[in-house]
Amino acid sequence: MLNKSLLENSIFFDIETAGLYNTLEELKANDKHLAELWVKRCKWLQKQVEPGESTDPSDLWINRASLHPEFGRVVCVSFGVFTPDGTERITSFYGEDEKEILEKSNKILANSRSKGYKLAGQNIKNFDVPYLGKRMLINKITPDPIIQTWNKKPWESPFMDLAEIFAFGSWGQTFSSLDLISHVLGVPTSKDNMEGSQVHSYYWSGGDSIESIKDYCEQDVVCTMNCFKEISS
Fold it and tell me: CA 140 to CA 138: how far, in whole Å?
């Protein structure tokens, strides 16, 4: 499906995110109006909860805030490229200083654009790219043009999204997670030790948990790269 030379001229990436604060109560203490806006957002989220999942705004904060860039933060960004011998080289920026993470990531994006690289990943068009862009604006950083999608024609898009490629045009009908795609392609999964839904709790638990998040993010990138390799020739 994909030419392997295209993969050699792509940079793969993934992000991990957590809520701005550990709990809704902490958000209320630090930003009352944003907490009120979260409660309003929950009226929409409450219609989408899984059976048995709590609809209480405090619980939804723990489970869902990390998915919304207005209420979340980027805690890790991992980038990967294929070396000339076909192995993966991974670079990660992570920690508590979100602005530093975003600034360093923006430099990588700018360098990728200057080299004419594609940006590749799993579901990046619907999650990672807009999340990075919004968090950069919130942190007073000008996003590199490579992730600015406004006023671009479809054929000018620099993105290769695994979820979109694997969907074969059926995006509105079904969505395949990285765990599912890697399993059916016979690629080792990256979900053995952590799930994305656990990142918020890991991050706010302190200690060396940020290292676990970084490892998980890097494993996601490697898994994605191997999935792309599997469907290329």
Answer: 5
Amino acid code (one letter) for 99: K
pLDDT, mean over the chain: 93
- pLDDT tens-digit profile of 198-223? 899 999 998 789 999 999 999 999 99
Distance CA 200, CA 67 (A): 10
Half-sphere exposure of 103 (CA within 13 A, CB side): 7
Find out whether 16 and 199 touch, Cβ atoms under 8 Å: yes
Using the Cα atoms of residue 146, residue 18, residue 28 and residue 51 in order, give the sign of their dihedral.
positive
Q: Which amino acid is at 195?
A: E
Contacts 24+ apart (CB under 8 A), 90-95: 90/218, 90/221, 90/222, 92/214, 92/217, 92/218, 94/16, 94/210, 94/213, 94/214, 94/217, 95/210
Reported CATH class of domain 4-20+71-230:
alpha beta
Whether residue 48 has pLDDT greater than 80: yes
The answer, as to whether pTM is greater than 0.70, is: yes
